[in-house]
Amino acid sequence: MATDNRKVMLGALLLFVSTALILGTGPIDVAIPAVAAGVAALGLAAGALLVGTSEDGRPV
């Protein structure tokens, strides 16, 4: 099976940035705005989708 490296790299980047935004602000007691949290949650979903559909065949 061929893997689309662009999807994997972009998905991993989205997952990393979104996770850092959500989890990185917790220990320093900085409340992130609801809009930023929503965008980060969508980034997590999009990153997981890109990584999950990066190979040929049916996505899991």
Gist of the model:
The chain has helices at residues 5-24, 34-52. It is mostly helical.
Describe the fold and architecture:
The chain crosses the membrane at residues 30-51. This protein has 60 residues and is an all-alpha fold. Helix content is 65%, strand content 0%. It has helices at 5-24, 34-52. The two termini are 14 Å apart.
Overview features:
60 residues, mainly alpha, 0% strand
Task: Write the SSE topology.
Elements: H1 5-24, H2 34-52
Helix pairs in contact: 1-2
The overall pLDDT average reads: 84
Q: Helices and strands: which structural class?
A: mainly alpha
Largest sheet: none
Helical amount: 55-70%
Helices and strands, in N-to-C order? HH
Spans of at least 5 consecutive residues whose pLDDT stays below 50 are none
Shape: elongated
Radius of gyration: 14 Å
Say how many strands there are.
0
Q: How many H/I helical runs?
A: 2
First-last Cα distance: 14 Å
Strand content: under 5%
